[in-house]
Design a protein that fits this description.
Blueprint (H helix, E strand, L loop, with lengths): L1 E5 L6 H10 L3 E5 L4 H4 L14 E4 L2 E3 L2 H12 L13 H28 L7 H21 L13 H15 L8 H11 L2 H16 L13
Parallel strand pairs: 1-2
Antiparallel strand pairs: 1-3, 3-4
Length: 222
């Protein structure tokens, strides 16, 4: 059975959601956030101390969007993947990479310089600049959704899971009120998916069972 190391509503939520979409069993090992400080034993599994870490036999992966692509390709029988000979393949890969490098990364700086740094290192201007940067980059998502329900291939794919997490993080940061209408409607569609709802429930119950705080990682205040 695959093993997923996870913190509540951290980037590891992407593969958890993907696993639920696929109906795949997984041993979910919950960690307090941030694990590199609060679960030092985890560094033996992942020297970076970050989540996710997916272990699938000899395969070990730490990049959340890449794990979504891997799971869809290896275990989805084409339901959530886009094959390389499909005209939408390039767009699919682009959304997967954009989800973290362009949409999640600036939000981590907002989180860090608004809440996670010591008081003397908080940088409100940096946080505000990167919040605007994120919202500006959402224009690409907005454009893709003007005449479509999902980002590519005319259907829900792993790319929607990957980008969907960036929207979840934005909601935790109070940025979702600034979503344009097409993105707001898209985000509502994603949240209504049964697998998304199950992923929320699964992480909450696993945290309770394993004695880990249930507060979502973006909401933790040092």
């Amino acid at each position: 059975m695959m093993v997923l190391y996870h913190c509540v509503s951290a980037r590891s939520f992407r593969p958890l959601w993907m696993l639920e979409e696929l109906g795949l069993p997984c041993e979910l090992r919950m960690l307090p956030f941030p694990p590199r400080a609060l679960a030092r034993h985890y560094l033996e599994e992942n020297p970076l101390g970050t989540v996710p870490l997916l272990v699938d036999g000899a395969t070990r992966m730490t990049e959340s969007a890449a794990i979504c692509q891997y799971l869809a390709a290896r275990h989805g029988a084409g339901a959530f993947d886009v094959p390389s000979d499909d005209p939408a393949y390039g767009a699919y890969l682009n959304w997967l990479h954009m989800s973290d490098a362009t949409l999640t990364f600036p939000q981590t700086l907002v989180l860090r310089y608004t809440h996670f740094e010591p008081p003397d290192r908080l940088q409100p201007q940096v946080a505000a600049d990167y919040a605007r940067w994120f919202l500006a980059r959402l224009r690409a998502v907005d454009a893709a959704l003007q005449n479509a329900e999902y980002l590519c291939a005319g259907r829900f794919t792993a790319a929607d899971v990957a980008v969907g997490y960036a929207l979840l993080l934005a909601q935790h940061l109070g940025l979702s009120a600034q979503f344009p209408p097409a993105i707001s409607a898209y985000w509502q569609r994603l949240q209504a998916r049964p697998a998304y709802q199950r992923a929320l429930q699964v992480q909450h119950q696993a945290a309770l069972d394993q004695g880990v705080p249930t507060t979502p990682s973006p909401d933790i205040r040092p």
